[in-house]
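Check this.
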Amino acid sequence: MSRRTPVQPPVPSLQSSTELQARFAELQAKAGASALAVSIADLETGAEFHYHADRWFHAASTIKVAILVGVFGAIFRGELLPQSRVHVRNRFLSAYDGSPYRVRLDRDANPDVHREVGRTLRVSELAYAMITTSSNLATNLLLDLVGLDVLQRTLESFGLEGVDLRRGVEDEKAFQAGINNRITANGLVGLLRLIGEERAFSPALSRQMVNVLLGQQFKSGIPAGLPRSARVAHKTGEISTIAHDAGLVYLPDRRPYVLAVLTEWEPSATGRSATIAAASYLAYAALIGDRD
């Protein structure tokens, strides 16, 4: 049984892309979103779909998928081990001018990592906290540990476009100077496709990344538009004007499909998660069919 029962006519397949484009345009208009971008890649059939999928958005916390890939790249090269211990501190240097800044506890989705300041946590623990509860402190610790330049080169080695990693999170001086992490729907799908196709360094490391992404605790976006049998390895991201979700959707008896839904809003707008869930349903129904 589905988690939601959409009241709408049957959805066209990906092959009827013009009609599906119209559905997403209608969803954007009804929701009142300033912008909506969708990218789909079905690893079962090879079908793809793109709706404003090359438009750049502030990445918010979806950039943490790129950092996860970079961390696993360091593991692949033997520079780190999952059990390597990292000193937990809350002092980082701005990408703008090198001045120190801290990650604010009241703006971090996970307070647990803050409680470990002065102690150590494993790389695997930090990666899990970065993805599943979107810990900003864990993110910056891993970014500093591997190095921004190294992470950027790792992403470039895959020939990915639409992923622009430029700074840590909560770097307000960089933000004010316009130095921001950016993403496109196609960029996120390309990144997740590497993982889903087990091409991110090795099949074993790719599967480990999938397992981390399956632990995501924020499920009001893509998962909410799917039947209960679905498993979603995904990462959300939200700030005042942005709400995103992107992941690998696993359904019984088929290979996964990759979906990225990126949205932009006026700060006072509501219904963000519901819009992403509706977009998720449209993608599911176009690929699988309108099933209860």
Observations:
- The chain has two domains: 1-55+184-292, 57-181.
